[in-house]
Amino acid sequence: MTTATAASPAATTAAPSPLVEILGPEGWLAVCALGDLIPGRGVAALLPDGSQAAVFVDRGGRTYAIGNQDPFTGAQVLSRGLTGSAADRPFVASPLLKQRFDLETGECLDDPSASVPVYRVRMDGAADGGRDD
């Protein structure tokens, strides 16, 4: 169990971390602060329509969001997968059956017949997830 402690004066003067927002069927939705994301680890977000998104940030600061449901098992687990890259394509590997999903396109790198949804990402209303495109 943790207990709250008073913040140090230095901690209160730091600029707040920008909010990560994803574009869902009902518009832009704030998911978490960018500082809450750790490179190589995902965060699951429940969307207003009941679906889930898996949100990631890479070591370069680029953010990605894909559907959290593994199409091979139906389990909401992609946010718990391992991230990596293959031929300069960032991916997350499902923690269950290890299929890899491209974080930019949602395409399954191991079975082209399967894919997951991809969501646009922005920081506090700014350009998409640190991308230049």
From TrEMBL:
Domain of life, source organism: Bacteria
Keyword DNA damage on entry: no
InterPro entries given in the database record: NirD, Rieske-like_NirD, Rieske_2Fe-2S, Rieske_2Fe-2S_sf
Pfam families: Rieske_2
Domain Rieske: 29-130
Entry-linked SUPFAM superfamilies: ISP domain
Entries under CDD domains matching the protein: Rieske_NirD
Key words of the record: 2Fe-2S, Iron, Iron-sulfur, Metal-binding, Nitrate assimilation, Oxidoreductase
Protein name in UniProt: Rieske domain-containing protein
Protein species of origin: Streptomyces albospinus
Lineage: Bacteria, Bacillati, Actinomycetota, Actinomycetes, Kitasatosporales
